[in-house]
Design goal:
The protein is an alpha/beta fold. It contains 4 helices and 3 strands, in the order E-H-E-H-E-H-H.
C-alpha cells in the first residue's frame, strides 16, 4: 500500500498540457484521497487556449466521481473569466466544496 495523498499543490508554475500529461497516471492514482487541490497561478502566463487545455486536464482528472473527498480548490491568480469556467464544470460541481 502506498502513501495516502491528501493535498496536491502545483501552484505558482505554468503547467502546459504536455507537462501535465506526464503526471496523469500519478494524479489519477492520488485523486480518490485528495482533499485539497491547489492549482492557483498555473495558467496566467500561458496563451489562452493553452490555459484552457490545462484547466480541462484538471477537470478530467478530478471530477467528483474520481475525487469525492476534495473540499478545497484554490484557483486564485489564474485570471479566470467566464470562458474559463466552461472548462472546469466537473471540478466545481461537487457537494461539500468549501472554497
Amino acid at each position: 500500500a502506498g502513501a495516502i495523498i491528501t493535498k496536491i499543490d502545483v501552484s505558482c508554475r505554468a503547467w502546459p498540457l504536455e507537462c501535465l500529461l506526464k503526471l496523469e497516471t500519478a494524479l489519477s492514482r492520488a485523486a480518490p484521497t485528495v482533499q485539497i487541490l491547489q492549482i492557483d497561478d498555473i495558467i496566467a502566463s500561458l496563451p489562452t487556449d493553452d490555459g484552457f487545455a490545462s484547466l480541462g486536464f484538471f477537470n478530467r482528472i478530478f471530477p467528483p466521481s474520481a475525487s469525492p473527498k476534495i473540499h478545497t480548490i484554490d484557483l486564485s491568480d489564474n485570471a479566470l473569466g467566464t470562458r474559463a469556467l466552461l472548462h472546469i464544470p466537473d471540478l466545481l460541481a461537487r457537494p461539500g466544496l468549501e472554497r
